[in-house]
Amino acid sequence: MSVHPTFSFDDEIQRTVYEYVERNGAVEPDELARSIRVDSGTTHSKPARSGTYTESVCPPTADLESCLESLKDRGYLTESNGKIRVDFSATPTEFECEAGTVTLRLAREEDRAGIVETMREVAAGGTYIVAENVATQLERESALVRANEERSRVFFVAILEPDRDGDEADGGESETGARSESAVIGWLHVDAHELPSLRHTAELTVGVDPEFRRMGVGSTLLEYGLEWADGADYHKIYQNIPATNEAAIEFLEANGWQREGEHVDQYRIDDAYVDEVMLATWP
C-alpha cells in the first residue's frame, strides 16, 4: 500500500473491515468474522413512541471472504502468520556485526514488546523525550502500524538472530553469551500526518540497545529506514532531541543530518531547563 493511501472502498463492508484491522494491528480471520457488524439493510417497525431501528449483523461468510480478497488485491491488507494486517512492504536485509547476524525488516505487531523495551532503555534518564512518548503511545494503543486518512506510522526493527550453533543455556543465552532466541536490539519509526501541506515530511526516531552500540547497527538501520522513506516520497525527515543527548546529536550529524535550530528551555530534566535541538535530513 502507498504510504499516502487514497482510500476507495466499494461498500461499507470493505471500509468496516479495513478500519477494524487498522485499529487493531493484527487480526485472526475468526476474530474478524465475529467482530465485524454491518447494516442489514432491513428496517424493523417498533412501537410508534420508539421510532425505527436498523439491525446490525455479521456479514455472510462469502461476502467477508470476497471483501478480504479485494482489499488484499488493492494492497490495503495482507495476511501473514495466520493474521490479517495492514499491507506495508519493505524488503528484509541482513548484515553481520560483532554480535552476530542482524536482520532489518518491517516490524510486526508481535515485535511491540521488544520495541517498547528497547525504547525505554534508550530513553532512560530523560535524554530522548520523543522516543519515550512514542513508547507510551504504543503501550496505550492497540496497533503498532497505522495507515488511515489522518496519519501513517511504520516501524522497522533490527533483530539479532539466534546463534544456532551455540550451546543453549537457561535465560535465553548460550554458554558463550550468544542469544538463543531472536531479539529486538534496535528500532526505527517513521510517523507522518496526512495533511497535504505536511505529507512530504515525517518524524523519525531511532535507537539501539546500549549493549549493541558501536557495532554499526544504528547507522545501518538509519540508512535502511531513510532508503524506505525516500521510496515513500518523504522529502524531509526530522527529529528533535534534548541538547543534553550529545551522543544522539553527534550520531545524526555524522550521518549527514543538519541542525535547523533550537527551542530554548524546551524541557525540564532533573530540575534543570534543557534546550531542544531540531535536526533534519533530506533523503
Describe this structure in words.
The strands form 4 sheets. Strands 6, 7, 8, 9, 12, 13, 14, 15 and 16 form a 9-stranded mixed β-sheet that branches. Strands 1-5-4 form a 3-stranded antiparallel β-sheet. Strands 2-3 form a two-stranded antiparallel sheet. With 283 residues, it is an alpha+beta fold. The protein is built from 7 helices and 16 strands. Helix 1 crosses helix 3 (61-73). The longest helix has 15 residues, at 217-231. It has helices at residues 12-24, 29-35, 61-73, 112-123, 129-140, 217-231, 246-254; strands at residues 26-27, 38-45, 52-57, 77-80, 83-86, 93-97, 100-106, 146-147, 151-160, 168-169, 173-174, 183-193, 201-208, 236-242, 258-269, 272-281. 29% of the residues are buried. Residues 42-49 and 167-171 have low confidence and may be disordered.
